[in-house]
Design a protein that fits this description.
about 450 residues, alpha+beta, Pnp Oxidase, Chain A, 11 helices, about 25% strand, binds flavin mononucleotide
């Protein structure tokens, strides 16, 4: 246990970084918490709300990482390097350290003080089933596997209860199922308003017994400072803005929750989920409520995770990647486009590797002469390097995700998990076709004349 020295960087340090870079808009006038999402959507920068109507102690902020540019700013790297920066952090985990000084516990509400309506949880989208908390770092423990950290949205139900969106495959779902099988509740703690590294680590699919706080430490290049919770046997980032402590009730997937505005840019189905009963709320004396802007911040937080997983899968398959991109049209999650230095057959090996990543359902592979960031270049490769009967790969019955409407999750019933088909397109130069057939047009006398000389 240490009690001195600088604390690992948190939410406020990122706000400052954005401010310094001209990427933070401060709104001094009083706003209705229900209007912050619409205002953030109109703002060209991350947004900071200085006065919230009816919540004099609270301020709100959001859209911190809702573009690739702002995510790269928060990660302190060039935009093209978010995957490799993330990968480096994952490869060098640093164990968290326990501290006593905890800004997140400057104010503690227990007993009758516990009341979620005292927090400005906003309505976000027209069809949402209610206000929900979108920026969660959820911590739990399992007697055998140890600590798990994931990010799960919580929809408001009553002053002391929320849902938890636990329908998809995840370690937290396994932890909850094991507690349920043992007939006991699962204690959780939810930190809100952390550095994006904690969210990135939480959303990374680490093997089940791996502590994602060590991965967050790798991303920071320093240990994450954790503090013991007040009413549950768990630890949370000490510099969080707000923490909810409590338990998931041993009731299974029986309470209706949603619909949510999803990171797929559409409204999901009503889901069946457990209930989170809140036992204590702790927060900073001058708390800032983080409204993670759906869907953009959720998408961009997925990008480095999915891109890094794609790079790793390619390397394990002995294919040399040159560039990788999880386009925002695929919500930085369902689609991976990669260029490779190809040897014969590796277009197909690369597709098999990329399609093994999470729920990626469309993978496109090109040679290294294609700029995968240029949609026209990509279309060109797909037009002239693809023969559909030879270069398209379809895999049926792989793991899918509820919020993709095409998996028809509504037909599954409570607790069911969907499957999906996966599509790979090998847009590399076909074997046997000389590379010279793809030489781009070059203009006659290109180097002999200069436009400036004719103005
Ligand atoms: C902002 C954000 C919100 C998320 N919300 C959910 C959610 O509500 N439900 C879910 O199943 N996964 C959600 N995820 C993805 C999970 O956090 C991710 O699958 C993670 O790997 C789960 O961690 P675990 O398997 O260690 O429990 C979210 C991710 C982010 C970045």
């Amino acid at each position: 246990m240490v009690d001195s020295g600088p604390m690992s960087a948190g939410f406020r340090e990122v706000l400052k970084q954005l401010d310094d870079a001209g990427e933070l808009l401060r709104l001094p006038k009083t706003v209705d918490a229900r209007h912050v999402s619409a205002l953030m959507a109109q703002a060209p920068q991350a947004t900071f709300f200085e006065q919230i109507d009816g919540y004099p102690d609270w301020r709100m902020a959001g859209a911190l990482v809702s573009t690739r540019k702002r995510l790269a700013l928060a990660m302190g790297c060039p935009e093209a390097a978010i995957a490799t920066t993330f990968e480096r952090g994952v490869q060098r985990p640093i164990e968290p350290r326990l501290v006593e000084r905890a800004p997140c516990q400057e104010v503690v509400w227990t007993g009758d003080d516990v009341d979620l309506t005292r927090i400005p949880i906003p309505m976000m989208h027209v069809k949402d089933g209610g206000p929900y908390i979108s920026a969660t770092v959820v911590v739990a423990k399992d007697p055998e596997y140890g600590r798990n950290v994931g990010s799960y949205r919580l929809m408001y139900r009553t002053p002391r209860e929320t849902g938890i969106d636990l329908v998809s495959s995840s370690d937290m779902r396994v932890y909850y199922q094991r507690a349920l099988d043992a007939g006991r509740p699962l204690e959780i703690a939810v930190a809100i308003g952390t550095h994006p590294y904690e969210l990135l680590a939480a959303s990374y699919k680490a093997p089940i017994a791996v502590d994602e706080f060590a991965i967050a430490g790798g991303l920071h290049g320093a240990p994450v400072d954790l503090v013991r919770c007040r009413t549950v046997d768990l630890e949370v980032p000490a510099n969080a803005e707000l923490v909810l402590e409590g338990e998931l009730l041993p009731m299974g997937w029986t309470a209706d929750e949603g619909p949510f505005g999803e990171f797929s840019h559409i409204t999901g189905e009503v889901k069946w989920n457990p209930i989170f009963r809140v036992r204590a709320i702790t927060h900073r004396r001058d708390p800032i409520f983080y409204v993670l802007q759906m869907p953009w911040e959720n998408d961009w937080l997925a990008a480095p995770v999915i891109e890094a997983a794609g790079l790793q899968a390619l390397r394990i398959a002995s294919v040399e990647p040159v560039a990788i991109r999880a386009p925002v049209g695929g919500c930085c999650y369902w689609t991976l486009v990669a260029s490779i230095k190809k040897r014969p057959g590796e277009g197909k090996n690369a597709l098999l590797a990329l399609l093994s990543v999470a729920e990626v359902k469309l993978a496109i592979v090109t040679d290294d002469d294609i700029d995968i960031y240029d949609p026209d270049d990509l279309d060109w490769a797909m037009t002239f390097r693809v023969q559909a009967d030879q270069d398209v790969l379809v895999v049926s019955g792989a793991r899918g995700k509820h919020i993709d409407p095409s998996v028809r999750a509504a037909a599954l019933g409570k607790g069911g998990l969907p499957t999906t088909a996966k599509l790979g397109i090998d847009a590399t130069i076909p074997e046997g076709v000389p590379r010279s057939h793809y030489e781009r047009l070059r203009y006659f006398a290109k180097d002999a004349v200069r436009l400036e000389d004719y103005r």
